[in-house]
């Protein structure tokens, strides 16, 4: 056995960027993390008990950014590829909005769920070729907005009736998604 294999293999060591607890306590866990591609010093996190946090200095200091959010589990965070202050967040549960947008690094949040069904939402993808187009992964499939969340429509042709849990996108415009128990699907050129 190798007592220090990661160092011997040229791999780094995992360290916490902050001594601060990014959750609401011992019964909470982090569910979501996003690093802004346009400024990697900006990091967002979200927890199962609804704690949203942001760091603008690579994790050295953190601020709570929950004003305007429901008390729901945060399931995903997506940051604009060109603007580190433009961020989207999704939540699970019922009886509240499920997709929120902030244009000021989470200082304020706006519910952009509008006509999205009152259903848990697990993932959000900003279209890589048109940032006004958003995809929401819910427990009943994908919903798409082509007007930055003003209106939503089901977008499930070719998909099984399954919860959508994750998105990934390529700069070329190809988008992949993962479903709960039914596989991986892709859309795009």
Distance between the first and last residues' Cα: 47 Å
The 3D shape can be described as globular
Strand content: 35-45%
Helix share, percent: under 10%
Question: Order of strands across the biggest sheet?
Answer: 1-2-3-4
Low-confidence regions: none
Calculate the mean pLDDT score and round it. 93
Taking Cα atoms only, what radius of gyration do you get, to the nearest Å? 17 Å
Explain this structure to me?
This protein is an all-beta fold and 189 residues long. It has one helix spanning 5-8; strands at 30-35, 43-47, 52-55, 63-64, 74-79, 87-91, 99-102, 110-111, 121-126, 134-138, 141-145, 153-154, 164-169, 175-179, 183-187. The strands form four sheets. It has a four-stranded antiparallel sheet with strand order 1-2-3-4, with no helix packed on it. A four-stranded antiparallel sheet has the order 5-6-7-8, with no helix packed on it. Strands 9-10-11-12 form a four-stranded antiparallel sheet, with no helix packed on it. The longest helix has 4 residues, at 5-8. The protein starts with a helix and ends with a strand.
Would you summarize the structure shown here?
The chain is an all-beta fold. The chain is built from one helix and 15 strands, in the order αβββββββββββββββ. It has one helix at residues 5-8, and strands at residues 30-35, 43-47, 52-55, 63-64, 74-79, 87-91, 99-102, 110-111, 121-126, 134-138, 141-145, 153-154, 164-169, 175-179, 183-187.
